[in-house]
Amino acid sequence: MIQINLLGLPKPRKGKRATAQSMPGDGPNPAIVILLAFVISAALVGGWSWRVGKEKDRIERDMAAAQKESQELAVAKSKYDEREAQRKIFEQRVKVIEDLRAKASGPVELLAMVGDTVNNTDGVWLGSLKEDGHMVNIDGSALSVHQVATLMKNLEKTGYFRTVELKETQQDPQVKEMQQFNFTLICEKADKTQPQAPQGTAPAPSADKKL
What we know:
Elements: H1 30-103, H2 108-119, E1 124-132, E2 135-142, H3 145-157, E3 161-171, E4 181-189
Antiparallel strand pairs: 1-2, 2-4, 3-4
Helix pairs in contact: 1-2
């Protein structure tokens, strides 16, 4: 019997297995592999960028909250320092007055009068009091020169002094947390044997004054 090979392929030999012929298109396409690798890389980079962005937003929120809390603490500390300074001033005022009373450096009446007048004048506290005959020197501190002037008026209103003069006043450079002025007053005692005319009234005319 005659066999005709129409495919034009060599006829396999007997007793041997025909070798498999590789078909065109077998195996992965390189272009598809590259495309998949690019897509996967882009997805990984995008995911990483998203996580970094979320972390950045969280850090910025935490920093803003911390900054706000720091500002609130600074305001609270400023108010606390101001009240603490006022408390120390009040305690110093009370201590000085108590020390002066304990040492009995002057008459009880004079010391009590000056102490009460200082206590009733806001922003002023007593440093020392020295009596020299009919003159009295008062050293103290105040938060402003206007309060020193108020203290001088209050001392004059007591009727205990004939004159109250300001010897000197200067700002205390050692006090940093607030403004403070140190002052010295020179007060002349009133003569109790002579009647004191009420303040603001003109003296009575002399009896021998011709009209």
